[in-house]
Amino acid sequence: MIQFDKVVKRFGDVTVLDSLDFNVQKGEKVTIIGPSGSGKSTVLRILMTLETINEGVIHVAGRPLWHELRNDQLIPASEDHLRQMRKEMGMVFQQFNLFPHMTVRRNITEAPVHVLGLSKDKANQRAEEYLELVGLSDQADKFPSQLSGGQQQRVAIARALAMKPNIMLFDEPTSALDPELVGEVLNVIQRLSEEQDLTMLLVTHEMQFAKQISDRVCFFDKGRIVEEGPPEQVFSSPREERTQEFLKGFI
Ligand code: ADP
Ligand code: MG
After folding, report:
1. In the chain, where the domains are located
2. What pTM does this model have?
3. Residue of 41, 93, 204 with the most ligand 1 atoms within 8 Å of its CB, for mutation
4. CA distances from 57 to 8, 53, 157 (A)
5. Does ipTM exceed 0.90?
6. CATH homologous superfamily for 2-250?
């Protein structure tokens, strides 16, 4: 579903992704862990086409992301191609990023109406469906500022789902929350992860949660995957010294 081949990303002189090879299979739930600055968010932002790449090739759902194929040649992707590719993915950010001047309902229906061309009725129906999934059916007419952080993040998840993406990307979805609100957001993500069709890529520091929901854990350091494997193996008996050092900080 996602394939990075020798992807290089630089910001100025700084190499942030260092010839990264990385794959996620269809339906797989993969967690990325690693120190601050190791390139975790950059991976997700590149997938969402919020950042470009310097070298390498990425495929999403079997199609090149930052390129398109014309006459057997890979050429830089057109804006139209990028728009199509973005529909494969939904992303949830650390800072919920809801539209502050729109109700919860409008936050969720905006993209389905304007990007997918759904009728208002259809989009409202969809909003109700996903608000129910995240347990917020009764909050549709509120504004984001009237909700707790945990509720706002659940709206952000419903908003991403309303585009019916095949892939969900989560970038530290609970890092900005007060501790007592973390559980309600993790519960929603857990429920989603049990819906087998979604492919999930999650960046988190919630190690216990990562252990519960991941098929595979990847430890990133300095723009590379240092170690990856089933969560039991990576968390209980990490092979690499850098992984061991990093995980010590979470016990
Ligand atoms: P992580 O999510 O693992 O903490 P990031 O992917 O956000 O790491 O960042 C990786 C590195 O890239 C960091 O050194 C960060 O400072 C740098 N970086 C990220 N975004 C930018 C940007 N827009 N301009 C310059 N440097 C950036
Ligand atoms: Mg980050």
Report:
1. 2-250
2. 0.96
3. 41
4. 9, 9, 28
5. yes
6. P-loop containing nucleotide triphosphate hydrolases (3.40.50.300)
